[in-house]
Design a protein that fits this description.
Elements (H helix, E strand, L loop, with lengths): L3 E10 L2 E11 L4 E5 L6 H9 L6 E6 L2 E2 L10 E4 L11 H11 L4 H14 L15 H13 L5 E5 L7 H18 L2 E6 L2 H7 L2 E6 L2 E6 L1 H6 L4 H6 L4 E8 L2 E2 L13 E7 L4 E5 L7 E8 L4 E7 L4 E6 L11 E5 L1 E6 L2 E7 L4 E4 L1
């Protein structure tokens, strides 16, 4: 379909930089999720691509053509908003047809395109209904159909499922992913939900303070975060402070070896990388504070002797109770200093990956 290129974008509001100097390439047919905390600039980036905000610096190119100064209605983009932005006094079909009527297409072609778009989102029999007669999920499908009926080169979605309940969100994002793959349309998707980004994206771009913290595939983003911020923002992560001395961490429970300079570090360990067994660790006592049974697994909240807390994921058959003393081992540990990853230690394979 199309390639999107953002070159050194900059945008400020009231003298404060919201986007500092952002560059990003989105490949033909790729679905990229912009992920970050509130105020990170992800929606501002999306609105600049759609033409609803104008960058003060930089350029936006679609298939090599500079569209930075092109108004929204003339850009080859389709935007889906969180609020749906549908007209309640119109029928579903009229909502979807609105942009086509502005283009003054023949009525027969408009009917055909509207029918195809509604079929695509599973609302083929809903064309004559009013928007207020639809559920929230159906309204969002109409908004997606209205964007797709214009056959945009780039599909833009600004947290489109944020107002829906969890089960409906999961179902709609699966449907959206199927539609996106079927059409092969280049897509930029803004979300604050980590699970949504991990489930949808070909690539995740984590924003922080208007800058790209890391851009990577979902599996790499989760398993190999490059900064301490990404490690703590994507999924659940345990952080334990200690010092490196002579190539070994001085933490009593996790004295991992790594070829890094002496000094303070943070050990980062995913809950699923911890193995819990009954008994006492040699270096420091650890006790179960709380057990939560999720059906597929147990999540243990464990208090260490020095007061630190860690979370560990265990099989649902694990026989652990609050107050029980346990022994901890870690299969994978990352070491961070000053926000930067220094090394990654896989204790089972006895190997250290330097960064």
């Amino acid at each position: 379909m199309a390639q999107l290129t953002l070159k050194n974008l900059g945008k400020s509001f009231d003298g404060t930089d919201v986007i500092a100097d952002l560059s990003l390439d989105v490949a033909d047919g790729e679905l990229v999720c912009l992920l970050g905390p509130s105020g990170s600039g992800k929606s501002t980036v999306l609105r600049m691509v759609g033409g609803f905000e104008t960058p003060e610096r930089g350029a936006i190119l679609i298939d090599g053509e500079d569209v930075t100064e092109v108004p929204p209605e003339k850009r080859p983009t389709g935007m889906v908003f969180q609020s749906h932005a549908l007209w309640s006094h119109m029928t579903v079909a009229d909502n979807v047809a609105f942009g086509l009527k502005l283009r003054r297409l023949p009525k027969a072609e408009i009917r055909r395109k509207v029918t195809e778009a509604l079929d695509l989102v599973g609302l083929g029999d809903f064309g004559n209904r009013r928007v207020w007669q639809l559920s929230g999920g159906q309204q969002q499908r109409v908004a997606i159909a209205r964007a797709l009926v214009l056959e945009p080169k780039i599909l833009l979605l600004d947290e489109p499922f944020a107002s829906l309940d969890q089960h409906l969100r999961e179902r709609l994002r699966e449907e959206l992913r199927d539609i996106q793959r079927r059409l092969g349309i280049t897509t930029l998707f803004v979300t604050h939900g980590q699970d949504e980004a991990l489930a949808l994206a070909d690539r995740i771009v984590v924003l922080r303070g208007g800058e790209i913290e890391q851009a990577a595939s979902p599996d790499r983003m989760y398993r190999a975060p490059e900064t301490r911020f990404v490690a703590g923002f994507i999924g659940s992560m345990n952080f334990l402070a200690c010092d490196m001395r002579g190539g070994r961490a001085d933490h009593p429970l996790f004295p991992v070896a790594a070829v890094v300079p002496d000094g303070p570090v943070e050990l980062a360990i995913r809950p699923e990388a911890l193995t819990v067994s009954p008994g006492r660790s040699a270096g420091m006592s650890a006790r179960v504070h709380r057990k939560t049974d999720y059906g597929t697994h147990l999540l243990l909240d464990i208090v260490l002797e020095d007061g630190a807390r860690v979370k560990a994921m265990c099989p649902p058959s694990g026989a652990f109770e609050a107050g029980q003393e346990v022994r901890l081992t870690a299969s994978q540990v990352a070491l961070f200093r000053d926000e930067v990853k220094l090394a990654e230690v896989r204790t089972e394979a006895r190997e250290v990956a330097h960064v």
